[in-house]
Amino acid sequence: MLSLFALLVASGFLTYLYREYVIRSQTDELVADGRAIASLVSTSLEVGSPPAVLQGILDVIRPFVGAEPWIVNRAGVVLATEPAGQSLLGVRLPRDAVDKILSGQVVTDVGTGLRAPTPSLSVAVPVVVGRTTIGAVILHRPLTGVEAVIADGRRLALTSVLLAALLSVVFATMLSRSVSRPLARLAGAARELARGGVGREVAVEGPEEVRELARAFNRASAEIARTLEEQRRLEQMRRDFVANVSHEFRAPLTSLRGFLELLLDGTIAPDEASRYLRLMRDDTERLSRLVSDLLDLSRIDSGKVVVRAEPVAAWHAVERAVAVVASRAQAAGLTLTTRVEPGLEVLADGERLQQVLLNLLDNAIAYTEPGGRVEVSAEGDGPRAVFAVADTGVGIPPQELDLIWERFHRVDRSRSRQAENTGGTGLGLAIVKELVELMGGQVGVESRPGEGSRFWFALPRTADAALGREPERSPARGAREAGGR
User: What is the mean pLDDT of residues 286-302?
Assistant: First the structure.
């Protein structure tokens, strides 16, 4: 009984330490996220962007941050918040919190001291430009979520204590059978697990009952280790994503700010103003593409993209996509051709297929020099139909081929930002891969530096086509030139 009491006391102490650790680690996480968001919104706050712009930035960031973000000005007045908290717009933070923020301090609170609508773990991170604090980013994480994490730790500690108590009982009853050593190891491992030492294994030895207990302990320890590793991996992915989004927003916003200052102070001659306005338009279009791509990925990740598979004529999908980009290819001095197998049909979502082809064509046009060629093809391959977009562009180094489908990955950032600023967001190929896989297909790429690239994807053919029976189709179409220099 004394040993059990000691274990319970130890469990209570470990639970207290674990609660302090969770709050401290989650506070550090919120501060890191707040600093990334502060860097992202600093330009908008400095130039006095309207609240609708700040709200739009929060709407994009919110799905990727495990907290509710607010933006306040230097007076502590709330300018933007989550959709459910619109009634809080105009609310002012407490005076002492505002004073600390203006002095450059990070303010933390557990409760409602930073005007959180419900008890929350809250941080306020100053937005600093130069040496001046111009506002702050507030992040609220409801304590219900924090307490859930603590409850999990408490359950783990209690389970470990109960397991240790069970092992102690077994140890006492089987001491006469000379099994004290393996049971002592198992009890020690259980206590170490209660202190957070995950991944520990014990030797499987002794009588069969003890061996089975050791195997069960090892399985539980390995499962906990895998779970924690997966949580760390997902957290790192989330941090990388927030950092990449911040970087991608910062560049065009900084460019727009610079051009606006030049226009406002009269540095730019009137006859040069149209050129800078076109550059500002390009930066605005780049921001629009980035927001659109982020929303597409958010809908895909959340399972909100519905794919409706139906027969689609390959020639029709190709012709629609080529018609959209033909004028841009011609303006870039490229020859754009098509080659489609007559009568080919696929089972796909027509709109998603169109989006995939346009993303690949945009990529090919952006990376092919004037005078080059881009070809769109579609042909049958057994039960599959293989679409391909081939170009005579700059090509891709072999070591990059396995990375190009990752989000925000670019082979060569200097080439992806051409003079006309037609570079992509680094998300187009990731969207292509996600959409093709949602339609039951596969993607691939072949490339040689300096010779060009061939991006392909395969989708299921219709049953009639796969069995060799010709479906109804338009007149046969072979190779066709859809654009020119």
Answer: 69
